[in-house]
Design brief:
alpha/beta; FAD/NAD(P)-binding domain; five-stranded parallel β-sheet; 23% helix; globular
Length: 500
């Protein structure tokens, strides 16, 4: 496979899923992944190793615009960040595809409707073997195909929490999850949220779509491949070659089609550092590459009752969308509430270093742990930039009033449910809370780098398929939306590009 038909850069949700959508196409496909397979070691279920010692964190530093360096929470393994994700595979709500007014401004519309996109949501749910149920959540959009598997069951303390929230007149619903709970627990009795998946219990990019893709002998994965830049053809209308480094050796490959799926930050970085006549990088006639960076505004909230222990092992089975479309009083949207995986003292110690471990163990043992997530709105000045070899993040948070409002209303609800202590803490830039938006799709090449099929307006053989294409962040986990668009783009490539 000297010069394959297609090269896919990255094996995360976008890259792996589009590869699975091209199975049987007859095209020769090379996947370039900068990481290696995640090894199965005792660290994988050791909360101290993961959360305190940072065993899996990347060995790189990014900079804030202004100079301060920080260690990002992005992961470089086969399967990408999905190896550590919470396996929540939830659809954007139908309303998220239209422009929506928020406290911090307007969330823009997608270039197509939910109804047009829905079939690929159903295909993605089948591919990732999503477990869920319909009829519990009043914001749930139309499904043409019901979930194939029943939801992951609530443990006793969570069943009690569900009943408590229902008692307040709210609508707690089962999270749609890509988790085979029996297999996961056989491999170790922990939660899966933020834990590396070294087995088959979690349906991530590697265990679901990549496993399907690699059954096709025309699809090959190469690891340890760090893409340095793309080379444009002399007329700049196409990408002529990909330059990457593997085991210290600089290599070059010249496919017919390039699919960039390195993640919202690194896909933008690859384009920005690729040589161009105007010095702005490739696919950047609109000057929007790297701009409109979004990362959900989110907080952890611990509802603590010292009188009752929470002995749940995995916990993460509930969500609440009563405040997704409004603040409950006819006002603007707040966001989504869902359970975190069950925390322990080590997880708390990673963020609260001065408190003794025994006190943190006690707190964790009596807490139900929640994740509050609100929409971050696109802003051209919220952006990813490059400075030499450095990645520079200028994240300008927006719409924080929604997070403040959701925090306030949920604190009141949990106290009404009998939890006298309710603590919350926002997540910071070290946590990749669903990074997106840096190479957005749209209808106008003057304002968006990508068309609605994620093809670059500037280079006819370049597609970008990962969280970067999202025009808005909504207020739910984006993995299923990325996977669904990857399947949609794969269908387009089969019908249009490969049929030509």
């Amino acid at each position: 496979m000297t010069n394959p038909d297609i090269v896919i850069i990255g094996s995360g949700i976008g890259g792996a899923t589009i590869a699975s959508g091209l199975v049987g196409s007859g095209a020769s496909i090379l996947m370039l992944e900068r990481g290696e397979p995640l090894p199965a070691t005792p660290h994988a279920r050791d909360t101290r190793s993961i959360f305190v010692d940072g065993h899996y964190r990347p060995k790189e530093m990014w900079r804030e615009a202004g100079g301060a360096a920080f260690n990002p929470g992005n992961y470089y393994y086969v399967g990408g960040n999905s190896k550590f994700y919470g396996a929540v595979l939830i659809r954007y709500r139908k309303e998220d595809f239209a422009a929506m007014e928020h406290f911090g401004g307007v969330s823009p519309a997608w270039p197509f409707s939910y109804d047009e996109f829905e079939p690929w949501y159903s295909k993605a749910e089948q591919l990732f073997r999503v477990r869920g149920t319909l009829g519990e959540d009043p914001t749930e959009p139309f499904h043409s195909i019901p979930y194939a598997f029943k939801p992951v069951p609530d443990e006793a303390p969570i069943a009690r929490a569900r009943a408590e929230l229902k008692g307040l007149g709210l609508h707690p619903a089962s999270l749609p999850l890509g988790v085979d709970i029996d297999t996961w627990l056989k491999e170790g009795r922990t939660g899966w949220d933020a834990f590396p998946n070294t087995g088959q219990g979690k349906m991530d990019a590697q265990t679901a779509p990549l496993a399907a893709a690699l059954k096709d002998s025309n699809i090959r994965l190469e690891t340890g491949c760090y893409v340095e830049y793309l080379e444009a053809a002399p007329d700049c209308k196409t990408i002529a070659a990909i330059h990457y480094r593997q085991n210290g050796e600089l290599k070059k490959v010249a496919p017919k089609l390039v699919i960039l799926s390195a993640g919202a930050v690194n896909s933008a970085v690859i384009l920005l550092r690729s040589p161009s006549s105007d010095g702005k990088g490739l696919a950047n006639r609109s000057d929007q590459v790297g701009r409109n960076f979004m990362n959900h505004n989110s907080s952890a909230m611990l509802a603590i009752d010292p009188r009752r222990r929470n002995d749940a092992v995995y916990q993460k089975t509930l969500m609440l969308n009563d405040y997704y479309l409004s603040d409950g009083k006819g006002g603007k949207p707040l966001g989504n509430v869902q359970l975190l995986g069950k925390i322990d003292g080590n997880m708390l110690k990673a963020n609260v270093k001065r408190v003794p471990k025994f006190a943190l163990d006690y707190m964790a043992g009596h807490a139900v742990d929640w994740y509050l997530m609100c929409e971050d709105l696109p802003d051209p000045e919220s952006r990813i930039m490059v400075d030499g070899k450095d990645i520079v993040m200028q994240w300008r948070r927006s719409n924080m009033q929604s997070l403040d409002g959701l925090t306030k209303v949920m604190r009141e609800h949990f106290r009404a449910c009998g939890y006298p202590i309710v603590l919350s803490r926002p997540f910071d830039k070290r946590t990749p809370s669903h990074q997106c938006g840096t190479i957005k799709m749209g209808d106008d090449p003057a304002t968006a780098p990508l068309d609605p099929f994620c093809r670059a307006f500037d280079h006819q053989n370049l597609f970008v398929v990962d969280g970067s294409f999202l025009p808005n962040s909504a207020a739910v986990n984006p993995a299923l939306s990325i996977a669904a668009q990857a399947l949609r783009v794969a269908d387009h490539i089969r019908k249009v590009e490969l049929a030509a």
